[in-house]
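User: quick one, fold this
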Amino acid sequence: MGIAGVGAIMLVLVLFVYLRSISKGPSRKDRAQQNDRWLLDQVDAFEGFGRHQDAIKLLERALESDPDNTVLKARLALLESDSNSHS
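Assistant:
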């Protein structure tokens, strides 16, 4: 097997790895970020309609399943402080 054979094998391996990475779809981290964005959009919608308590409940429920999520914790703290200042 000459240089062409080694090159062909390398090309097939690189192509295989590339196609495998595409077929897996987004990584777990990417999916988590997409879920956070979607959830925060829902919170924004609740706030837009003046439903602050519903937004707080939504964030609290989300934090039950992911208690280490600092983005959601920060948003909840912000909502609670806004809610307390409006009361």
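User: anything notable?
Assistant: The CA atoms of residues 81 and 87 lie 10 Å apart.
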